[in-house]
Every structure is written in C-alpha cells, then in structure tokens.
Amino acid sequence: MNNVTLNNGVQMPILGFGVFQIPDDETQAAVEAALAAGYRHLDTAASYGNEEAVGAAIKASGIARDELFITTKLWIQHAPTGNVQDDTRRAFGKSLDRLGLDYLDLYLIHQPLGDYYSEWRAMQEINKEGLARAIGVSNFHPDRLVDLIDHNKIVPAVNQIETHPFHQRATDQELMRERGVQIESWGPFAEGKNNLFTDPLLSAIAEAHGKSVAQVVLRWLIQREVVVIPKSVRPERMAQNLDVFDFELTDEQMSRIATLDTGASLFFDHRDPAMVSWLGGRRID
Q1: 8 band by pLDDT with thresholds 50, 70 and 90
Q2: Angle at 100 (CA atoms; ends 96, 106), nearest 5 degrees
Q3: Cα(250)–Cα(278) distance, rounded to whole angstroms?
Q4: Banded model confidence at residue 226, pLDDT cuts 50, 70, 90
Q5: Within the chain, what is the greatest distance between any pair of CA atoms?
Q6: What is the pLDDT of residues 37-61, one digit of tens each?
Q7: 120 phi and psi, to 5 degrees?
C-alpha cells in the first residue's frame, strides 16, 4: 500500500475503506471482510451511526493497532453544556469508546458549520495530547479552509471533500497543496450518478488496461495524489478496489478524464441556505 505523508509527518495510506451508508447491522461483517482483503485504513464518522460496529470488526480481526489507520469525524456540536470545546472533547471520548480505541489516527470536523473554531481549539489540544495523531476537516471550501488556517496554530492535515470525475476539485487541491493540506476524496464513484460505471470515455480507458471503470477512477485519483476511501459490501469488489497498483494511466488518459469535470457538486452545496439549515439542525446524540 502506498502512503502519503501528512503535514505533521504521519503516514496515511492513500487507499482506504469507507463505511458511509453501510447499515449498522451490516457494518461489522463488511469491515471484517475489508480487513481480510488487506485494507488497513478505515473511515467512519459519529453521524454514520456505525462506529461500534467498526470497533467490533477491528477487535475481531486481531490486527495490531499500529498496523491500522482509523479516522472518525466530529458532528456539529450544539453545546448542551454551553461550552463547545468541552462538548467536543465529550464527543471525541464517545467516539473512542464506541470504537474501543485508545487513540485515533485522524479526527475530522465533519461540517464547516456551527462554532467550528471552538471545535478546532479543542481538537488541537486532543492532538497535542496524542489522542489523535492528526486532525483535519471535511467539506471545507477554500475560503473557510484558509480562514481556519490563518487563525489557528495547527494547519489541518486533511480536507475530505467530494471528489470524482464529474467534480474534480483541481483548483481546490492546488490551494491545499500550497497550504500543506492533504486532499481526500469522498464519493469517488459519484454513487453511480451520471452513469459513471458505463461512461464511454472511462469504459474505453478501462478496456485498454483490462480493468474496471471503478479501478480506473481509483487509479486516476491515486495518480493525482488524492487519498480515497471507496465503499463496498461485496468482498470481490473490495479486492478489486485494492488491485489498482499494477497499472498506470497515461498523461493523455489523465487529460481525457479531466474533460469530464462539471465543476459542480452532484450531491449538495454547503453554501445553500436550506442545506446549511438542515445540516445545522441535525442531532445525533
């Protein structure tokens, strides 16, 4: 497995396994299968409702903790105690307990909403105490990311954002590179939108390499140095998604894939007032 080096020196596998939208009662089996297939990087979140199942799979696997890279995410804190920093630490502790872990490899602010500056101050302390080896954010647009960087001591190690052939985020990635932030893709297959798996351009490139469209998309992201966390509940697909290090896309193929970019989200816009209100009003505790 290839790694990327985060801005604090932590090594992060460039390919991992995500569990978003896997039902809680299916998550343990899926993660156990992923670990058996060779994944060592797992990505979950408090809002997914399946941290306990991920933790159970980790325990059942018997794999040494230092061989794994575990990420979870902090949901928007609504400060029932009146102190967002205290509530952030409380939420972090609950995630650790559900996962059955003593520390995380990466802890992310899930949404750029609410008092995420107080959340970040608490997360900086969590990082300094060694409870999270690295800290970062998710779904931050460039302006919010730069503002957070410019007013805090620790630069986010990662920004996990929607990134796929139809929303490629090249400009965002360049800014992150300049600022020392690693881009990570969620939704690498766009959940099949725009008929991704039968797209003629991607299909032709896949055929040329004797690979699947999914493998081409993962290879395209990896060659762009984008960390990626595909999801599957099928062991054969899990194995296939790992099998992307024995071929390389040409510069011409990379350029052709670049023409698919629409420059817009296929899911939702964090700058849409209705979406901001919906996310901000969602409670998970």
Answers
A1: very high
A2: 45
A3: 42
A4: very high
A5: 58
A6: 999 999 999 999 999 999 999 999 9
A7: -65, -40
Which CATH class for the 3-280 domain?
alpha beta
Q: Domain coordinates of the chain in residue numbers?
A: 3-280
Q: Which residues lie closer than 8 Å to 45 by C-beta, 6 or more apart?
A: 20, 51, 72, 73, 75, 108, 110
- Kindly name the residue from 48, 103, 116, 117 that is annotated as catalytic: 48
- CA–CA dist 127, 87 (Å, integer): 16
- Say which residues have a Cβ less than 8 Å from residue 107's Cβ, sequence separation at least 6: 71, 72, 73, 74, 92, 95, 123, 126, 127, 132, 134, 135, 136
Q: What is the pTM (predicted TM-score) of this model?
A: 0.95
Q: In this prediction, what percent of the chain has a pLDDT beyond 70?
A: 99
- Annotated catalytic residue 107: no
Contact criterion met (CB below 8 Å) for 35 and 61: yes
Position 128: which residue type?
Answer: K
Go through the chain and tell me how many residues it has: 285
Q: HEC profile for the chain?
A: CCEEECCCCCEEECECEECCCCCHHHHHHHHHHHHHHCCCEEECCHHHCCHHHHHHHHHHHCCCHHHCEEEEEECCCCCCCCCHHHHHHHHHHHHHHHHCCCCECEEEECCCCCCHHHHHHHHHHHHHCCCECCEEEECCCHHHHHHHHHCCCCCCCEEEEECECCECCHHHHHHHHHHCCEEEEECCCHHHHHHHHHCHHHHHHHHHHCCCHHHHHHHHHHHCCCEECCCCCCHHHHHHHHCCCCCCCCHHHHHHHHCCCCCCCCCCCCCCHHHHHHHHCCCCC
pLDDT at 81: 64
